[in-house]
Specification:
elongated, 4-stranded mixed beta sheet, Alpha-Beta Plaits, 306 residues
Length: 306
């Protein structure tokens, strides 16, 4: 169903580049999150339901995610230059870090309001509950559709960024389901359930924020992605170059990995022959591993860069 819709409304879908598909998804997510956020916040204020209000804030917080996807795709298109030999990918990590910290500040305020809500009792009318239930259900359906669109585009573009954004949209659908429970609780006089659901949504947002902070710091601190480094060693082993490999380090810049290989070839190795082996190793790495930005080789005092 989703594939048919995409092919119908995006005729040149298969001809678009990965970066173009990422920006397309980011624009779609941006406007959908604005619409859902306004709808849920207005309903939350009008009905006095904290869980809906919290879910609306969650939708607006997701605007930052859409912006990150959009900006990252722009930076991914920017070529390396003299001042940035590894590219501009770390700007994305800085943006994610700032966004995540702001997200946690929003959660703190949500918790304060939810705690106050435990001390108040209220019941909403059947008419109000129908409005709240309708708003929450609309959000669940729309977010699940958006999740499937993002994952489908991610599969077409071979983009992990789009796949992760799709997972994020699915978490948002679950968040709206929790808000739905809060609305039902308010209808039947279980006003404490509204505050409890608001806290539950806040915990989900906090988990996303803390996870993003960790991943951003990993990138900024040049964490070695050992799984990729091991894969490079396995590729070298398949090419009978295992004895040439001294160390492998893998860093991440944006969506791409930067792989640094320290070679220790035999002392009598011909430079021309060695360059041929390095070229073959680079080709195999790019064939078998996804999201490789560049591969750098260091040999004693000489450096080869692919």
């Amino acid at each position: 169903m989703i594939a048919n819709l995409l092919n119908r409304y995006i005729p040149n879908l298969r001809k678009l580049s990965a970066r173009e598909l990422e920006r397309l998804e980011a624009r779609l997510s941006f406007w959908v999150n604005i619409a859902l956020g306004v709808m849920k916040i207005l309903a939350g204020f009008y009905l006095g339901i904290l869980a809906l209000l919290a879910d609306g804030i969650h939708s607006f917080a997701d605007l930052g995610t859409s912006a990150v996807v959009y900006i990252s795709s722009i930076f991914a298109d920017a070529p390396r230059d003299e001042d940035h030999p590894y590219g501009h990918g770390k700007a994305l990590a800085i943006g994610e870090l700032i966004m995540s910290i702001l997200l946690l500040l929003v959660v703190v305020e949500m918790f304060k309001q939810a705690i106050k809500g435990f001390n108040s009792e209220f019941t909403i009318s059947e008419y109000y509950s129908l409005i709240g239930i309708s708003v929450a259900l609309i959000s669940v359906v729309v977010k699940e559709i958006l999740a499937q669109i993002s994952m489908k585009l991610g599969a077409i573009a071979n983009s992990n960024l789009l796949f992760l954004d799709g997972v994020h949209h699915r978490v948002d659908a679950l968040s709206s389901l929790i808000a739905l429970v809060g609305v039902i609780g308010a209808r039947y006089g279980l006003s404490w359930l509204d505050s409890a659901m608001s806290i539950a949504i806040g915990l989900m947002i906090a988990y996303v924020g803390l996870s993003n902070i960790k991943s951003s710091i990993d990138v900024l601190m040049d964490k070695d992605y050992a799984n990729v480094s091991r894969a490079v060693k396995e590729i070298a082993k398949d090419l009978n170059l295992e004895s040439y490999i001294k160390k492998v380090f893998t860093r991440k810049y944006g969506d791409n990995y930067v792989i640094e290989v320290q070679l220790e070839p035999p002392s009598d190795e011909n430079v021309g022959t060695l360059k041929g082996k390095v070229k073959l190793l680079s080709e195999r790495i790019r064939e078998r591993l996804k999201d490789v930005g560049s591969v750098h080789y260091t040999i004693s005092l000489c450096e080869f860069r692919d």
